Amino acid sequence: MEAAAKVQRQMVRLRGRSYVAFVFTPTVPVQDWLHEIDATIARSPGFFAGRPVVIDLSSVDLSQAGIGHLLTSLQDRNIRVLGIEGVEEGRLTPMMPPLLTGGRSCVVEPSAPKKAELKAETKPTSLLLENPVRSGQTVIFPEGDVTILGSVGSGAEVVAGGSIHVYGALRGRAMAGVNGHTSARIYCQKIEAELLAIDGFYQTADDIDEALRGKPAQAWLQGNTMRITALN
């Protein structure tokens, strides 16, 4: 009776959840790199607000004090750093974001419902979405191309290892070639994007030619420069 009267202890329930994080890779001189961040924020105020950011310090050799100054500088710009990678753990203090390891370019987490299970272990090289990607949704497919028969709403995100094809309006963010595929392209029937990116090179809404707004367009990389032109 005494045992039955005891309140049963509830097990802690742990859940996994994936988020898309921007990875910042500072370069020297760091002050010039921060000026580039300022320029991006000036073009699109609030662009990084509320978005998880990881700092990759593998390209710079910063002391503990230098890392602290960098984190403070980013915090002053309303950029919250989720974690740090590419540095020895001994250079971080307990008050700094944690050291992250094992990160990948992205994780498969398509927003669309899964269809029939694929036989064997063959992975698809393309993803077809028949429904629009609504505001707040994220579609991530690092294995290849993503084709969307509808539109991509404002605040939505599409991330692909290959090219991105949108047969409607592209109002959100499209990031193609995330695994280093510089030949990837972005196509849409109506360009009103908040951000376009290919292999880490990006342009925001203010960078896109006003003459292209609302028209079919394509984006590709020419060296280290993104080109956006009319889709003929």
TrEMBL record:
Pfam families xref list: MinC_C
Source domain of life: Bacteria
Repeat found in the keyword field: no
Coiled-coil residue spans: none
Record flagged with keyword Cell cycle: yes
Signal peptide span: none
Keywords (A to Z) from UniProt: Cell cycle, Cell division, Septation
Domain Septum formation inhibitor MinC C-terminal intervals: 129-228
Entry's Gene Ontology BP terms: cell morphogenesis; division septum assembly; regulation of cell septum assembly
InterPro entries named among the record's database cross-references: CAP/MinC_C, MinC, MinC_C_sf, Septum_form_inhib_MinC_C
Quaternary state and interactors: Interacts with MinD and FtsZ.
UniProt record similarity statement: Belongs to the MinC family.
Protein function: Cell division inhibitor that blocks the formation of polar Z ring septums. Rapidly oscillates between the poles of the cell to destabilize FtsZ filaments that have formed before they mature into polar Z rings. Prevents FtsZ polymerization.
Name this protein carries in UniProt: Probable septum site-determining protein MinC
Gene that encodes it: minC
